[in-house]
Amino acid sequence: MSIWEILIISLVKILIIVVMLLLTVAYSVYFERKISAWVQNRVGPNRVGWLGLLQPFADVFKLMFKEDIIPTAANKPLHTLAPFIALFVAFATYAVIPLGPPVELFGYKINLVVADVNIGILYVLALTSLGVYGITFAGWSSGSKYSLLGGIRSSAQMISYEVSMGFSVAGVLLMSQSLSPVKIVEAQYGWMWNAILQPIGFITFLVSAFAETNRLPFDLPEAEPELVGGYHTEYSSFKFAGFFLAEYANMAIASAMIVTLYLGGWQVPYIEKLGLSYTLTTIIQIASLFIKIGALLFFFIWVRWSIPRFRYDQLMSLGWKVMFPLALANLIWVAALIMVFGL
Amino acid sequence: MSLQKREKDLTVLQKLYIPEIVKGMALTLKNMFRPNVTLQYPEVRFEPSASYRGRPVLVQENNGVERCVACGLCSRVCPALAIEVQAAETDLEKERYPQKFEINMLRCIFCGFCEEVCPEEAIVMSKDYELVFKNRDEAIFGKDKLLVPVENLKDRLEFLRKFK
Q1: Is some CB atom of chain A closer than 8 A to the CB atom of B32?
Q2: CB within 8 Å: B36 and A42
Q3: Comparing C-alpha atoms, which of A123, A78, A137, A314 is closest to residue A211?
Q4: pLDDT tens digits, B23-76
Q5: Mutate to test the interface with A, among B32, B33, B38 (most CBs of A within 10 A)
Q6: DSSP code at position B121
Q7: ipTM score here?
């Protein structure tokens, strides 16, 4: 392959990923509203388009046409920069998530991942840690107490939960002996899903993912009753939309990461024994990835409308006194599995 | 943290937290499939029962004359001072009629006292709940807006005869 061919293939992959991610974000906003309505025995948005399906676009256009206010007390450059950091981090993470097995298309062998880097997991962890800058900058630069409190909470929360997150990921890495997401997915053939082999690690990662994405029950950075809007109190118009999109993009990425690390990525157990054609198998595998991500997104929303918010000290003690030891225990469990069964 | 001792200690199962979360999530899941009772308002309108107290109206008999004899009791009883009646004489059997009958809908609190006190069943609460006006002058409803033919108020009149 020449350099041009590689470039074009990469650009097409990036375009597909970005469009897909934007659509996922738009429709997770829609389903957030719909599911919250169903949980509360309401109808939900149903006016804009068929069944209200155009509602997310109406929301975004509404935000775009609003006045963009920068408070007098704000630090202007940082105030403007913050939502872009949040958005950039959210979108860049998706580059290393494998969407399916390698396919042959138009005579090229294409890996269904934008960047098959061998330290993919490290890249994801690094970027999600960067995400906290967006929120902290937003909180600090707004020149408002509520924003500042939200930003501080966010950084404290993200740092504490990253520890247990890192340790639960370590279990997965031990199992697959690689940092590359592609290899991690390939290691989970059949029913060797990490969620089944290391259930404790799965739960700690899941809970940490909730904390990392600032979703209820851990949405302390934007706890409405105490902090008005939290870190985005002073944001309006498209910058607010940026934070809004970033939150949902983070949710989609957290789901994709959970699927990749614990639920076998695009793997469908024992599909090769069905004797289907190569193309059909590939399509089913790619579809299975999206179904898994969709199910997890539903789970995220379902949890949000079921469980009340934690108090700040409860959040911290859960993070350090429960999640961290559990993640360590999981690491020992995985090591024992490898020692005994030689997996 | 020094917290007060709880009145009821949690059991071990409750302290594990996860069974309780599962219970809560099961409840919300169950609710997702329950039918809802929402009415799609501008298309589907709520049809109130006879006991509903909507906008107060004056009963208009079939011959086009109002029942009201302008005794002014409604005006006296109105706690919000929303009703103004001005009486005049007429050659009809009832001898008196309201020359001017105005209800300020910005003041009305829909208590139904006027209806309760009326000796002629001439002012009743209707089922009308859509009250829109663009300015304060429009909010003062005169006889033109208040008079409603008696057929349209049968429900309420029957209800009053039964329960008043």
Answers
A1: yes
A2: yes
A3: A314
A4: 888 988 888 888 888 888 888 888 888 889 989 999 998 888 888 898 889 999
A5: B32
A6: S
A7: 0.72
